[in-house]
Amino acid sequence: MQNFRRVFILFKDVLSVIPEFSKLCESDKMTLGKSRFSVFYWWLLCCWIAKCGSSGVCYSNGSYFPLDTNFQPIPDLKGITELAIEAVSKPLARLCLTEEEILIGSVFAVFFEYPLPPKMPHASTQILSNARDRYIQCMINVSSCSEVQSALRLAEISLIFPSITVGKLNGIKNSKSFQNFMTPKILNFQNLVHLTSDNIKVLDAMRVLEADQLFRDVFIVKP
């Protein structure tokens, strides 16, 4: 819970400096924030795992949840830890992301194309679409590689995102290059956001974490 709140504050700070986010109305800010926080959360956690090479899920307070079931304080029945490591962190580790790529990647995660937040008016959808194009270019620009290599690097990063959240890959799942890059776990198309969504709902129902109120307090400016 402490880790969740730490990352949430970081999420709020990142969104507060994104100009496209400030253009949204309050209800659309809520919709975007609620739909994209989990993606932001798992992106950072998996980047931390990749950087430290931990055999478990790393948290912002220095603790971790082990992959080895013999040491898990609570059984990971859904295999979330294995998915985070095998399908996301190991591919990220092979890319050796820079701090700049991790930071811009966290913003890119917010505007990743699918799933678009539901029930957004056309004007807001256009803002998000333009933001996505902008941060795609930022991901390319921040790389020290050539423009072509940077674009290929971004493509590899983008292929990892469906293991974090729902994604549409337009038929490339069966391509040879895609299968060579991805692990079997990724090809199963499970995703971390879906597998952990029940945890947030349970905490909300038990009033351990009142998610809706938390988002309202942060994203709705009171008169």
Automatic annotation (TrEMBL):
It comes from Caenorhabditis elegans. Residues 1-197 form the NR LBD domain. The keyword Transcription applies. GO terms for biological process: regulation of DNA-templated transcription. This is NR LBD domain-containing protein. Keywords: Receptor, Transcription, Transcription regulation. It comes from the Eukaryota.
